[in-house]
Structure formats: C-alpha cells, structure tokens
Design goal:
alpha/beta, Rossmann fold, 4 domains, seven-stranded parallel β-sheet, six-stranded parallel β-sheet, globular
Length: 642
C-alpha cells in the first residue's frame, strides 16, 4: 500500500515533500490536513531507517486520540514507530524519564489533577490569601500566562511581580505538597532542556510532525525548537494562521507565519482545496478573513461539489429566535438531515444561559440535544480509586503521595473536616515539611489539634495507608479480577466501574508507554486518566449545542451560528483581540458543509441582554465583521415552504 494512494496531486506533493527537511504546511479548513499528516508519517517511515521513530504532536488529547486511531488503521504494526502525544503529555513523559534533572521540580514528579486543582489548590489558596476562589483562579491563570509567554524567564520576575503576595503563597503551598501544575509542564521541560545540555529526549525522533502549529504559544514554540535542535529532527509544522483562536493561552499565530525565519530553508507547502464547505460558504469565509491585517496571504477553493446556502435570519428577540431555530432544525431533520449533522454555535454560553431557550424548544418538540461539557465535577468514587492507586504506587517505591493522602482524608467518611486539614497544612508550612510528614508529628504531640481530633487524624491516616498497601496486585491476577478486588476494597459500585472497564479494553495505545504501564496499577491509572477524554464531540441522534471555541475540529451539514450581533461579536473586547475574534467567526463559518445559518436578534433581554445587571436590554446590530458584506437579512417566514 503506497503512501500516495488516493491522494490528490496537491496532497501528494505535500505528503512526499523534500524528505527530512523542515517544512511548513498552510492548510485551510476542510483541505484534509490530518489525512495528509498521516500519509506524511507513512512517507517518512519509508524514508528513514527501520530503527528510527517519528514524533507527532497535537494540540488536544482528543486530536491525539484521533491521530493515533488513523495511524493504526493505516499502518498497522508499523504505526508503533510513530509516537503521538500532546506537547504537555510529551513534556511530562520526558520529565518522568529524567528523574535526575536540574532540580527545578519536586520529586517524585506529581501533577495536580482536576479534583485536586479545585478542592486543594484553589480552595486552600483562597483560604491562605483571603481571596474568593474566582480571584484565585484569575491569579493562577495570570501565572500560567507568564509561563506561556516566557515572562517568567525575566530576571527578578517573582520579586517584582505585580501580585508577588499570591506568588509567594502559591510557592509555599506547592512546597507543602510537592506538586507540579499541569499548566507549567512545557515551561519546566523547556527549562530542563536549556539548563542541561546533556539531556537527550528518548527516543530521539527523526522527524517532528506538529499539528495546529498556529495554536502554540511562545513557550511551546521555544520547546519545539530546542527539541529539534537537541535531536536533529526535521520539523513538519501544519496549521493555518487564519484558525488561531486560543489567545486565552497566549497562542501566537506568528509562529507559523514566521516559520521560515526560525527554520531556515524550510519548504513552504499549501493545501487550498476545501472538500468540506460549499462555494457560497467558502466565498463568505474568505471575504471575512481577507480583512485581517498581517495574515499570510492564501486562497481557499471549494471542491465539495455540494450545493450550499448561506442565510442571515433576523428575529425580534431571543424567544422568537429559539422558536424559529427549533422549527428550522425540525424541518431539516424531517427532510433527511441526521440530528448529529446539525451544529448550533454560541459565542458564549456560561451555565447554559444562551442555549437554554433553544434547548427547551427542541426538547418540547421531541428532539434530543447534546451539550459537551468539559468542566463537570469528577465522580468522587473514581477520584478515590485514583488516589488509592497513586498512593499505593508511591508507597511501593518508598515515597508518599501527599496530595492523594490529603484528598482521601477529605473524601473518606472519617469525621476529618476542613479545619483539621487546614491545621495539618499549617503545621507542614510552619515546620518546613510535606503534608504527610507533618501528620507524623502528631504522634508525639497534639500541636494545633485537640487530643480527640489528633486521634481521629492518626487513625484515619493509618486506615488509608493500610488500604492503599492492599492495592498491590497479586501474582497471576488478571486485570479484571484486580479491578473487582480493589473496587470492593473502597466500595466502588458496578455502575461506576463500567467506564473503567470500557477504557481498559484495551488501554489506549500511546498512554501505556508514556506512563510505563507495566503493572495493573499503571494500566488502571492510565485508563482513569483517559476517562475525561472519552466524552464525544457529538452523539448519534442528537443536535449539538456548543460554543464557537469548542467547535474547532467539528463539521456538520447544517451549522447555525448564534449571537452574531456586534454587541457580542466582538462586544466590548479590547482592540488587541479583534483579529482573533474575526478568526473565531471564520472557524465557525467553515464548520458547515451545505447550509450555514447566521442568527441575529433585534433585541436581547434578561439573562441574554448586554450591559450591566438591571439594564440588560438593548437593540442589536449585525457584527461589524460582516456589515460590509451586503448580506440580506430574512425572517423565519421567508424560509418556510410555500
């Protein structure tokens, strides 16, 4: 099977371009970028030696899973020579594989999980600083931004920081548990590469395939350059500066625009044939993005062969909008469009306020809706199971997982409350110890606890540690039997175990070698870690309601873009964000294959109104990004069959 099989001439030129040389691929929406990346990997595997490997880096874990599946389907066993990972996961793997690195991080390396981020890091920093949790999250986001932009590299950064008090509180808290935030992984990996000239990533890839290059920030870009320099790997950067929409994590579209300035002699490759969108949709989207100053000039031509339509519909208010869009969706389904091929996008949808009315209308009409959410509270039983596994692994290696112990003390039914946990943390800080080590001090004196509370704490800790030691797998014990046994130990029910069993059959390829899944414990941890990514982007038989940002990577026959008013898009965004919001609209428009609907309200009131609380009513105008296009607004009546 040839790597060029079934490719168009343009795709074939890209997949087989210039062997092991640096190259930039600018690929517009619907041009088959991921498909070509897989074929590029196949071509490179034939070009390099049989013992050499490739590294494919994606922006999200969902994209990594899709890439892994496509490679496996196309290449079979040969796909094992292509490691697929997000940059964060790759950085974690390399930091784990180099335990004797410079000492920038606490060892053993312990990355904060979702539950711990909310219930330990944010809550305890809120208590330590006297700030609401919302402000703590803002401060942590600012810290992440300093890593992403490399501002944290500046001399005297911490001492001269505008919020030095918070940084100090975080550093103290971090030391008490010995943790690393997920947001700092790439920054710390870059620091290790810079400080240790002898650090050699393993395995050293012959080539790096980097997807969504436009979404990388300054830290990501520097890490990839250091990695390429250290390993001698050729970099194949694929993306589209027109689709850079993650400014909230300091994405720098200049990275792909100026690629040749950093990778001298790099080939400049293009994919311009859009096989997804019809010509009217491509025409509108191209007109829109051509207005952005500083973009890399490029063309996009529809080759879908589909007849398409673009409709701007104007409604008097959000209630009429919900009713009218529900009618339009119902008619599309009755005409043969599968519900999962209908995508409704909102500029913002906090707590479902923007989508609620349409969701109600569709539900009343008997239509199923699906709203992907990524911030749901993790199942406490699964969190407990994960904590026990992590604690058991640490104990087996002669260490103590302080974060897992802290979490279990809160989650188990042991009458250990927030005051006790705070007292232990304070003792750890006062004595310069870790959380679990501070508990040992209570064996000799009550310190800041009453005698009765001290006894409960010591008893609860001993029970947790004893249970964790029972998590060691027995000889010849199958993974299924192991799961049943430890579930019984912690009282996890069969319904809760169902997604774990699904994730374990099989453990996703690529995760096991990242975490060295050589035991049942590590297999199970890998499965638990992947559960957050099992949520699908769409569901069969359901109309998808989501945000514009979340629509990246999706496509549908019918796409409805709501909140197309200037008051929302761009709204009161600062001037520096206008270009990104234009790109966000461009991405949203190019999700559609056959029918693109732009929904405009003449007025929005109440929860959907603009302005300060109590004054939430205003008349709306079409977004300035489309005003000069000459689109003619229609009513829902105009679209009804006559």
């Amino acid at each position: 099977m040839s790597w060029a099989e079934g490719l168009s001439p343009a795709q074939r030129d890209v997949a087989g371009a210039r062997g092991l040389d640096h190259a930039r691929l600018l690929a517009g929406p619907g041009t088959g970028k991921t498909h070509v990346l897989v074929r590029r990997a196949e071509y490179l595997l034939e070009a390099v030696g049989p013992d050499q490997t490739l590294l494919a880096l994606t922006f999200t874990r969902a994209a990594a899973a899709e890439m892994r599946a496509r490679l496996d389907a196309r290449l079979g066993p040969a796909a094992e020579r292509v490691k697929v990972s997000t940059l964060h996961a790759y950085a974690l793997g390399q930091l784990l594989n180099n335990p004797d690195a410079s000492g920038r991080l606490f060892r053993p390396l312990r990355v904060v999980g979702d539950w711990e981020q909310r219930h330990v890091v944010e809550q305890e920093l809120s208590q330590a600083t006297g700030r609401p949790v919302r402000q703590v999250r803002t401060a942590l986001a600012a810290l992440e931004n300093d890593w992403n932009t490399l501002t944290a590299d500046r001399e005297g950064w911490q001492e001269g920081h505008s919020d030095a008090a918070f940084i100090g509180a975080w550093v103290t808290h971090r030391a008490a548990y010995g943790y690393t935030l997920r947001a700092e992984l790439v920054y710390q990996f870059l620091g290790e590469l810079r400080q240790d000239p002898g650090l050699q990533p393993f395995p050293a890839p012959a080539a790096l395939l980097v997807d969504e290059f436009q979404d990388l920030n300054s830290c990501d870009l520097d890490a990839i350059r250091e990695l390429a320099t250290r390993t001698g790997a050729a970099v194949f950067a694929a993306g589209d500066d027109d689709q850079s929409i993650y400014g909230f994590r300091a994405a720098a579209p200049e990275g792909i625009r100026l690629f040749a300035d950093f990778y001298h002699g790099a080939a400049d490759l293009r994919l311009t044939e859009c096989r997804r969108c019809g010509p009217q949709i491509v025409d509108l989207a191209t007109w829109l993005i051509d207005q952005e100053p500083g973009r890399t000039p490029k063309t996009l031509t529809s080759t879908s062969g589909e007849e398409d339509h673009v409709d701007l519909i104007r409604f008097p208010d959000q209630h009429a909008e919900a009713s009218g869009l529900a009618e339009l969706i119902d008619a599309a389904i009755e005409a043969g469009t599968p519900p999962e091929q209908i995508l409704v996008l909102f500029r913002k949808d906090p707590r479902g306020r923007a989508s609620a009315l349409l969701d109600e209308q569709l539900t009343a009409a008997g239509r199923l809706t699906y709203q992907p959410r990524t911030n749901d509270e993790p199942d406490p039983d699964l969190v407990r199971l994960q904590f026990y596994l992590q604690l058991a692994l640490a104990l087996a290696e002669g260490d103590l997982d302080h974060l897992s112990l802290r979490g279990l003390l809160e989650l188990e039914d042991n009458r250990i409350g927030a005051r006790t946990l705070h007292a232990v943390l304070q003792l750890a800080i006062d004595t310069g110890r870790r959380f679990g080590d501070a508990i040992d001090l209570y064996r000799h004196a009550p310190h800041n606890l009453t005698t009765a509370t001290r006894t409960r704490l010591l008893t609860a800790t001993a029970d947790i540690l004893a249970r964790a030691r029972q998590f060691q797998p027995a000889a010849e014990e199958s993974i299924g039997d192991y799961v049943d046994r430890i579930a019984d130990l912690v009282g996890v029910t069969g319904d809760t175990l169902a997604p774990i069993r699904l994730a374990l059959a099989p453990v996703p390829a690529g995760l096991d070698d990242l975490i060295d899944a050589s035991t049942h414990q590590r297999d199970l941890l890998a499965a638990l870690s992947g559960l957050a990514d099992t949520q699908p982007a769409t569901l069969p038989g359901h109309v998808t309601l989501t945000t514009m940002h979340a629509a990246k990577g999706l496509t549908a026959d019918v796409v409805i873009v709501c909140q197309i008013e200037d008051e929302e898009l761009p709204g009161d965004a600062p001037r520096a964000e206008l270009n990104e919001l234009r790109r966000l609209l461009y991405v949203s428009l190019t999700r559609a294959r056959r029918h693109l609907v732009l929904s405009l309200c003449a007025a929005r009131t109440g929860a959907q109104g603009y302005g300060r609380a109590g004054r939430r009513t205003s008349r709306q105008r079409l977004t300035r990004f489309l005003t000069d296009r000459g689109l003619r607004a229609r009513s829902i009546d105009d679209l009804r069959p006559r």
